[in-house]
Amino acid sequence: MKIYVTMKSVSRRKDYLNRKEFVLKSTPQSLRQLITEIIALNVEQLNEKKLEKPFLHFLTNEEIVIQSSTGKVGFDTKYNENKSDEQEAVNTAIQAFRDGLFKVFLNEKEQEALDIPLLLQDGDEVVFIRLTMLTGRMW
Fold it and tell me: 33, 42, 50, 130: least CB-packed within 10 angstroms?
């Protein structure tokens, strides 16, 4: 099953959306299963990334221009040798959803419950919006 996931952080100053195609192994029946599947794919991708220790690493002007359009310029290098734990990452994401740290929209309709049946079809648009907590005083 192929879906399109768009991620947006409310805290970003630029109005940049990152739309990515995901090919899921199965059809998720609930939001909990969808989050689990996407986290599993991301952890797998992160764990497969090679640990790089280049002798001399540099960015070309073209790479800097492309990366600056996203708001972050970096070497995309993994420095940590430890592998991520998939179950721990899933538990953290589920807890973050329960705590209201991000919202999930399926075809522009907010998904508010983790275990209500989800009618996900091939080619659907899923949007994750990370919310930023503001600090301040009440008086």
Answer: 50
